[in-house]
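Encode chain A's predicted structure.
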Amino acid sequence: MKNLFASLLLFGFIVNTFAQNNALELKKQELENAKSSLVNAKNKVKSIEQEIAKFTPPEYWKKGGFGALNFNSLGLTNWAAGGVSANSVTAIGNIYRNFKKDKIEWRNNLDLAYGLIKNDGETLRKNEDKIDFLTKGIYGITDKLSYSSLLNFKSQFAPGFDFSDPTIEDKDRTEISKFLAPAYLTTSIGINYSFTDYFSIYLSPATGKFTFVNDDSIAVQNIYIPATLDDNGIQFYNDQYRAEFGALLNAQFKKDITKKINLTSTLNLFNNFTDVNTANRKNIDVNWETMINMKLTEYIGISFYTNLIHDNDVAVPLYEGNTIIGSGPRTQFKRLLGVGFSYKF
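Encoded structure for chain A:
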C-alpha cells in the first residue's frame, strides 16, 4: 500500500512538471510570435510614414510669436509711508519667422513694446518704447559651427521727454528722443556656434555699428553721439550720424523652461576699433536683455523684462537733488513686471 501511494505521488509530480514545462514553452512561443508581430508592425508604420513623406511638401518655414497686454494699478489713500497712486499699461509683442533648408538658415525676429504710465498729479507719460528687428543668415559648416551674417535695427515709436526736473511744466520739457532719433543699425559677418538648440554664440571680427539722430534739436544735445572737437575747439563731424567699426559678440539663450515658462536672454558686446577718442577704444558697449513669460491660464500671463546697457558714448545726466551737476557714461538699467492678457501663436 505504501509503495502504491509513493508511486502515485511520483506520477503526479512528473505529470505536473511536464504540464508546467509545456505551459512555459507555449508562453515562450507566444512571446516570440508577439515580438515578430511587433517588428512587422514597426516596419509597416515606417513604410507608411515614408510613403506619406513622399506626398507631403517639406516645411522650410517656421513662424510664431506672442502678444501681451499688461496692466498695473496702485491706489494709495492717506498712506503714512508715502508714495503716489499710479496706473500703467504696456503692450509687448514678438514675431519670428525662420527658414531652414539643408545647410542654409535665415532667422528673423521682431520685438515691439510700448507702455504708458499715469502717476497721481502728473500727466500721462511714456515708460516703455521699443522697436528691435534682427535678421540673421546662416550657412552650416558642421552640425554646430556655421558662417553667419547679422543685421540688427533698434529705435522707438514716439517722442520721449526729460522729466528729471519736476519744477518744469510738461509743455516746456525738452524732447530727447523720437522715431529714428536715435536709431541704431548693426551689420556684421562672423562665425556662429550652437552649443544646444537653445543656446548659441555669434562672434564677428568685422562689425559696423551706425548711430542716427534724425532730428536737429535732439542731435545738438549730443546725448547719443558725443561731441568731438579739434584742437581749436570746433566740432569736426556730423552729430546726426556716427559710424563705428569693431568686433561683436552676441550670445542668445531661448528655451521653454517648463510648458508654461519661457526664458529668452540676449547679450551683445561691441568694441569699437576706430573710435576717434583712442582712450575709448578700450571700452566695451554692453546691451543685455532678458524676458521671462509665464502663463497662468490660457490667456492670462506674467511678463518680466530687464535691460542693462552701458555705452561710453551715451551721456546720462548726473543729478544732485534736482540740479544737473554733470553728464557722462552711466550704467542704465530698466525692469518691467506686468500681469495681463497674453496670447501665443
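The radius of gyration is 33 Å.
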